[in-house]
Amino acid sequence: MRVSDLRLLDIVNVKDGRRLGPIKDLDLDLERGVVKGVIVPGPSRSWGLFGSGKTEDFFVPWDHVKKIGVDVILVDVNDLPEFNIENDDRR
């Protein structure tokens, strides 16, 4: 599977069924040739500085990726940031 194919898949947390959004970036260890994790967009906020409404991106370690399917990537993460569902533009 290519990285460009991974970016088309949504990430879903198996702990609570929450859709985290698409992969924004990959964190790679080029010396060892391994993927360290995936980066997903941070949660929306109702009021952001200059109206941006975004927080920091969220890092999911590669060992928390449980399954890469045809439509989604399943991850198992406990310490997710709080998402404001009403203003979440990733839905």
Question: Total number of helical segments?
Answer: 1
Specify the overall morphology: globular
Weakly predicted, low-confidence segments: 83-91
Largest sheet: 4 strands, mixed
What class would the helix/strand composition place it in? mainly beta
The value of Rg in angstroms is: 14 Å
* Main sheet: strand order: 2-1-7-6
- Binned, the helix content reads under 10%
**Beta-strand percentage?**
35-45%
Terminal Cα separation, in Å?
A: 25 Å
Short recap of the structure:
About 5% of the residues lie in helices and about 35% in strands.
How does this model look, in words?
With 91 residues, this protein is mostly beta strands. 4% of the residues lie in helices and 35% in strands. The protein has one helix spanning 3-6; strands at residues 10-13, 19-22, 25-29, 34-40, 58-61, 65-68, 72-75. It has a four-stranded mixed sheet with strand order 2-1-7-6, with no helix packed on it. A three-stranded antiparallel sheet has the order 3-4-5, with no helix packed on it. The model is unreliable at 83-91 (pLDDT under 50).
Keywords:
four-stranded mixed β-sheet; 91 residues; 1 helix; disordered C terminus; 35% strand; mainly beta
Secondary structure blueprint with pairings:
Blueprint: H1 3-6, E1 10-13, E2 19-22, E3 25-29, E4 34-40, E5 58-61, E6 65-68, E7 72-75
